[in-house]
Amino acid sequence: MDMVLKKLKDGILRFQTGVYPAQAEMYQKAASEPQQPQALVVTCADSRIDPELVTQSGPGEIFVTRNIGNLVPAYGEMLGGVSAVIEYAVSALKVKHVAICGHSDCGAMKALLNPASLESMATVKSWMRNAEAALSVANSLNEDGEDGYAKLRRLTEENVLLQLQHLRTHPSVAGAIAREELTLSGWVYDIGTGQVRISENGQRSFVPVAKEAIA
Q1: Which DSSP category does 72 fall into?
Q2: Whole-angstrom distance, CA of residue 44 vs CA of residue 130
Q3: Which among 61, 65, 59 has a CA at the least distance from the CA of 84?
Q4: Contact between residue 154 and residue 68 where contact means Cβ atoms under 8 Å apart
Q5: Cα–chain center distance at 70
Q6: How confident is the model over 183-201, as pLDDT tens digits?
Q7: Under CATH, what is the fold of the domain 34-214?
Q8: What pLDDT shows up at residue 213?
Q9: Most CB within 10 Å of its CB: which of 34, 68, 86, 201?
Q10: Order of strands, edge to edge, in the sheet holding 97-103?
Q11: What CA–CA distance (Å, rounded) separates 26 from 24?
């Protein structure tokens, strides 16, 4: 027997027998009404990231797209799945906010710092070109004596900021922002601590989410 598939099936059964019954009304309502998510979250495909859990969102509350490195190609560069999700979320679903969420210990960012690790993965190497400018900025800001952790943290932040710039080049996003129908933010999620730091209102700094900050 395929043990990985068995584990997935066991999880489905636990959901069906333990989780779903207690929230059946919510799921039935979600199934009977068109989705109306308020936000789009662009995050990494890393298996340790769960945007619904981190934001405590239920079915229908957030639209999510995931890819290696939480990248958003500038409009026209690599039109494909990510661009289609953005256009659909903004133009059809009318989301009010788009968040780009990076995270600690990101393998994609580590690969940027060690390009040789991508030599056997041509597709990934090509995809990571969407983050090259972030590496250039991070390198220019690196201080003497910075350790690997500090360099990775800085690159992760610069990548999120770069992808926000790319996001603004998409016509649907630019139009919605001009009409004051859409706002953007950049996040960095720390897997080990649960902390989320957010850059908003065009700021370069990432500020931890705290009760006093949102009261």
Answers
A1: -
A2: 14
A3: 65
A4: no
A5: 5
A6: 999 999 999 999 999 999 8
A7: Beta-carbonic Anhydrase; Chain A (3.40.1050)
A8: 58
A9: 86
A10: 62-67, 39-44, 97-103, 183-189, 196-200, 207-208
A11: 5
Phi, psi of 57 (to 5 degrees): -100, 145
Give the pLDDT score at 143: 77
Classify burial at 54, counting beta carbons within 10 Å of its beta carbon; exposed 0-12, middle 13-18, buried 19 or more: middle
Q: Per-residue pLDDT for 42 more than 70?
A: yes
Q: Hey, what are 131's tokens?
A: 């983050």
Structure tokens at 168: 């603004």
The full set of domain ranges for the chain reads: 34-214
Residue with token string 């897997």 = 191
Tell me what the mean pLDDT of segment 73-83 comes to: 90
Q: Phi and psi for 189 in degrees, rounded to 5?
A: -100, 125
In degrees and rounded to multiples of 5, residue 150 shows phi and psi of -65, -40
The pair of three-digit structure tokens given for residue 23, joined into one six-digit string: 């929230």
Contacts made by residues 127-132, CB under 8 angstroms, sequence distance 24+: 127/67, 127/68, 127/69, 127/71, 127/78, 128/68, 128/69, 128/71, 130/69, 130/71, 130/72, 130/73, 130/74, 130/77, 130/78, 130/163, 130/166, 131/69, 131/71, 131/159, 131/162, 131/163
Express each pLDDT in 137-181 by its tens digit: 999 998 777 888 999 999 999 999 999 999 999 999 999 999 999
